[in-house]
Amino acid sequence: MMDIVALLQCLRPQVTATTLRQCSRITYALLVMTGRVTRLGLARWAGKGGSYRTVQRFFYTVLPWATLFWVFFRQPIYGPEDVYVLAGDAVVVTKAGKTTHGLDRFFSSLYGKPVPGLACFTLSLVSIQARHAFPMRVEQVVRSAAEKAASTAKADAKKPQALGAQRRPGRPKGSTNHPKATVTFTPELVRSKAMLTALLQLLTTVLSVTSRVLDGHCGKHNALPMARQCALHLIAKLRCDAALYLPSTGPYAGRGPHRTYGHKVDYDHIPVQYLKETTVERHIETRLYQMQLLQTIYATPPSPQQKVSEVLLPSKHSVRE
Asked: Where are the domains of the chain?
C-alpha cells in the first residue's frame, strides 16, 4: 500500500489531496479484488477509508485523465533509452440495461459476435525493451444515429440477395471511376485521429514516436493515410487475401517505362529465400517471412522508399512427430 501511495505522489500538483487519497484506496482495491469490477466491489475491497460513498465521490469528480496518464508515465516509468511505439485498440465490456450512456452493440473478439455493452478506445505507449504497455488516452466510444444507420445499411448489403435480384457479373453499366486520392475516413478513424493528434502534442516535447500499431480491423486502405497525416508509419495485420506484389526483376522491354510490379504473392508458396525464422512448439510449426512488397490501391505514387512496404508474413503448419 505504501508503494502505491509513493507512486501516486507525482500526481499531487494536478489533483487535490482528497482525490489523491481516494485514488490510492481505489487502486489498492483494483489490485486485490476478484471478479467483475463494480463500485460496490471496490468499496468492499478498499478497506478503511474506501466506503461506497467515497467511491461515488471519486467517480463523480472531473479529472484531467489525459494529463494524469502523461505525468504518471513521465515521472516513474519513462526510460530515455527505451524505444516506444503507439498502439491502439478498442475494449468491449458486456453491459445489460437500456439507460447506460453509450450502451450499444459492439463486436467482441472473445465472443466472436456483436454483443450489447460499452466500448472504450485506448491509446498506449508500448516499450519495446520492457515489453509493457502504458495507457495514455482512454475515451468511450459513443456512436451517433447516423453512424448506426450506416452500419445497419452496410450489414444489410452483405446479406445474400434473392436469386432473381442478383445483378449480372461484371461492372454495372454507367458506373464511373472514383478518384483514389479522395479518402473518406470512417467515424471510427476520425475519433482515433483526434485522440492521436492530442497525444502527439504531449509526446513530442519528450520522446519521438514513429510507428503506430493497430489490429487487423484497421488494416485497410483508409487507415494508412490517417496515420501518414500524423507523420506515423502504420503497423497492422492485413487480410489473408491482400493483393501484394513482388518488385519486378524482369528485363527491360526496350520501350516505355520500366515495369514496377512483378508476380502477385502466393501466400501458400512463399519463396524460401524470405524465410527468416522457424519455431516448433508442440505440434505447431511457425514460419516467419520478411520481405518488401508493393501495392496498387493507393493513389499518389510515393518515392521508392515509401512505396515499398515491409511486411511480416507468419505461416503456421501442423507437424507430425
From this structure: 1-63, 64-151+182-237, 245-318
Q: Evaluate whether 200 touches 125 at the Cβ level (below 8 Å).
A: no
Torsion of CA 216, 217, 219, 222, to 10 degrees: -170
* Cβ-based neighbour number of residue 72 at 10 Å: 19
Cβ–Cβ < 8 Å for 140, 118: yes
In the CATH hierarchy, which top-level class contains the domain 64-151+182-237? alpha beta
Phi, psi (rounded to 5 degrees) for 220: -125, 170
Asked if 129 contacts 201 with a C-beta cutoff of 8 angstroms, the reply is no
E-only strand ranges, 210-305: 211-213, 233-235, 245-247, 261-264, 275-281, 284-293
The closest alpha carbon to 148, from 140, 160, 158, 156, belongs to 156
Mean pLDDT per 10-residue interval, the chain, length 321 residues:
75 90 91 89 90 93 91 88 91 88 88 91 92 92 85 76 66 76 80 90 86 83 84 85 86 85 88 92 90 75 41 42 31
Q: What is the pLDDT of residue 86?
A: 92
Q: Which of 132, 169, 138 is nearest to 63 (CA)?
A: 138
C-alpha 239/C-alpha 217 separation (Å) is 9
pLDDT value at residue 304: 39
What distance in Å separates the CA atoms of residue 89 and residue 77, rounded to the nearest whole number? 21
101: phi then psi, degrees, rounded to nearest 5: -65, 130
C-alpha cell at 224: 494508412
All residues at 6 or more sequence positions from 201 whose CB lies less than 8 Å from its CB, including other chains: none
- Reduce the DSSP state of residue 146 to 3 states and report it: helix
Which residues, in sequence order, are CB contacts of 187 under 8 Å at separation 6+? 143, 144, 147
Q: What distance in Å separates the CA atoms of residue 175 and residue 184, rounded to the nearest whole number? A: 19
* Per-residue CA distances from 267 to 1, 52, 312 (Å): 52, 56, 12
